[in-house]
Queue: 2 jobs
Job 1
Amino acid sequence: METLKAMATRKSVREFTDEGITFEDIKKILTAGMSGPSCMNKRMWSFVVIRNKELLGKLSVANGLYAGPLRGAALGILVCGDLERALPEAPEYWVIDASIATQNMVLAAQDLGIGSVWLGCWPCEDRVQEVKELMALPENIVPHSILALGYAKEPDNEERDLYESDRVHFDEW
Ligand SMILES: Cc1cc2nc3c(=O)[nH]c(=O)nc-3n(C[C@H](O)[C@H](O)[C@H](O)COP(=O)(O)O)c2cc1C
């Protein structure tokens, strides 16, 4: 699938079949996550792949009301920022690095025919604390987002055109 087609067909998937995701595909998705631009190439992220169903259930509780899709997912990928790698003069850039990594993984999954939904964690302080505790993350590691991944129960590869001309300005506002 071409990149533009992956973007046009992607929609959040919240209900999954029982089919697992191969290690080969997991690695392709993670590689995509690690292939985006990164501020001063500091690559300020780390990932936790969660395949254990019980842990996925606990993670869905820790991440609050809207993290239900993790319960039926084949796996979750917890995207974390690594503050030890952050730039002292612009520490917040880790958030952008983590966001790019997450979106790259969403598109890679779509390309592989795997559905996903992005579940926000940071900057909701309660979610950050709960997830950090559950996953026993080191001090410098901040949970940013979670991807729930799996094969869609109701696959929908219809292309959407989400262009909004009134959001775009050429040469002047
Ligand atoms: C930062 C961020 C946080 C999100 N958090 C959640 C969430 O907690 N639960 C959820 O079901 N979807 C979540 N989503 C998915 C959005 O609801 C979804 O992308 C949006 O409604 C547009 O739908 P689409 O992805 O099908 O185009 C999140 C998306 C982003 C980018």
Note: The helical segments are 3-9, 23-33, 53-62, 93-111, 125-134.
Job 2
Amino acid sequence: MQPLDPPAKPGAILSFDFDGTLHHPADEPPVSPRLFRTLERLRRDEGALWGINTGRSIAHVIEGLVESGFPFTPDWVVAREREIWLPQPNGRWSPLQPWNQSCEDELKSFFIEVRSILDLIRRDVEEHTGATWIEQPGDPAGLVARTEEEMAWIMQRVESHANGNPFLGWQRNSIWLRFGHKKYQKGSSLAEVARHFGLDASSTFAIGDSHNDFEMLSPGAAAMFACPGNAVADIREHVLAGGGHACTATHSLGCVEALEKFFGGPV
Ligand SMILES: [Mg+2]
């Protein structure tokens, strides 16, 4: 699987959240062929470079691409909401430097700084809920709750403890939560992708359905932003309040609806 032929001149950046936006496992196929056709048209007519902006690790993204039957690979991937990866002609993916390295270095020292706050959150969570704390390579701190209700309770505790450090951020996706530095999220990663291709927010489009999409669904990251019809209520309200497009269609057909709204339909 290779990317589409490079455009003569990059004209737009298209950023898609993966799970619940581009991809829906219950749909058959999980990504509509109409989306592939729309991406090919926008590559040809607008010089659009498309990518996946997700909380998944890069290995998990590649797995998802194969599973969804994409006829071509993305032009870029943002993994774990912060690492930028670019496809190579040999089919491998390579990290965008110095972005990925400085991000990892900065996070390493930041997690030492916020250790005591995270310990307090962990104690609270383990004493009062059945959520599981996660610490693994690439994910210095995170958790998975049993239910959305449990996560709502945890969020209140996280917000209160996090007052102790102005840069302590987190990315929530349903019952999953990953702690990080506020500087690194889908929005700042997307801005870096645009910069890499010589573009900026004015020619950037983004679509997502859940809480970890907040930052990329804002004018600072993407002048054109949308959510699919299945987006969580908080995201739908956020998109409408910011002047974005809340789709009627769900998942990948929602992506097609949003792209046609901002770039026009097929002629
Ligand atoms: Mg999602």
Note: Residues 17, 19-21, 173, 208-210 surround magnesium ion (CB under 6 Å).
